[in-house]
Design a protein that fits this description.
Layout: H1 2-8, E1 14-16, H2 33-44, E2 50-52, H3 55-59, H4 65-75, E3 82-86, H5 99-105, E4 107-112, H6 132-138, E5 140-142, H7 150-158, H8 169-177
Length: 183
C-alpha cells in the first residue's frame, strides 16, 4: 500500500507510525510496540523513500491518529500531510476520534486492497459531512493485488506455518528470533 500511495500521489516519502495502543484492536493479538517498531525498521531498511517514526510509542497510551497529525502538522508547518488508509477501513472512518479535525489536518488517500468492492464506498455511505465524502472518494486508487494481511501472517506463525515470501526475510527472522505470535 505504501509504495502504491507513494507512486499514485507522487509523495516525497512515506512515514510509518506504529501505534502504542490501538483503539480498535485487541492488544493481545499484537506484538509489543518495540517489536513492531523494529520489524518496520527492518522491513524498510535501505529504501530511502520510507521512514519510521516512533511518535505514538513515545507518547504512550491509546494512539489516536488525530493527535499524531496535530503534532506532525505543528512540526512541519506548510507541508501537506497525507494519511494512507486501506479501503477496508474506510467505512469505519466516521467512527474515528475527532474525524472532522483529522480530515482537516490531512488529505486521506485510500488504496483498495484485494477483495474490496469499490461500489460500496459511495459518498452517501461514508457517514461524513460535506465536503469530505466527495474529497475522499476522489482519492481512492487501486493498489497492487497482494493478498497478504498482518492477521494472516500472525495466524500462520501461531499455527507453525511458513511466512517466507509473505514478509521481508529480515522480518521473518526477527519474528523467529523473538518468538513472536506463537501460541
Amino acid at each position: 500500500m505504501a509504495q502504491d500511495a507513494l507512486e499514485h500521489f507522487e509523495l516525497s516519502k512515506v512515514v510509518f507510525v506504529p501505534c502504542a495502543l490501538p483503539p480498535h484492536k485487541s492488544v493481545a493479538e499484537l506484538a509489543p510496540a518495540r517489536h513492531r517498531l523494529a520489524m518496520l525498521e527492518t522491513a524498510i531498511e535501505g529504501d530511502l523513500r520510507f521512514e519510521v517514526s516512533d511518535i505514538e510509542i513515545q507518547r504512550g497510551g491509546t494512539s489516536y491518529t488525530v493527535e499524531t497529525l496535530r503534532i506532525l502538522a505543528a512540526e512541519h508547518p506548510g507541508v501537506e500531510l497525507y494519511f494512507i488508509i486501506g479501503a477496508d477501513s474506510l467505512p469505519e472512518l466516521h467512527l474515528w476520534r475527532e474525524v472532522e479535525s483529522l480530515l482537516s489536518l490531512c488529505r486521506v488517500v485510500t488504496i483498495a486492497r484485494p477483495g474490496v468492492n469499490l461500489d460500496v464506498l459511495q459518498t452517501a455511505t461514508m457517514n461524513l459531512k460535506d465536503p469530505w465524502p466527495v474529497r475522499i472518494r476522489s482519492d481512492i486508487r487501486m493498489g497492487h493485488m497482494v493478498n497478504v494481511s498482518s492477521s494472516d501472517v500472525r495466524y500462520r506463525v501461531a499455527e507453525g506455518m511458513g511466512i517466507r515470501y509473505l514478509v521481508p526475510s529480515g522480518v521473518e527472522m526477527y519474528i523467529a528470533e523473538h518468538s513472536l505470535y506463537r501460541r
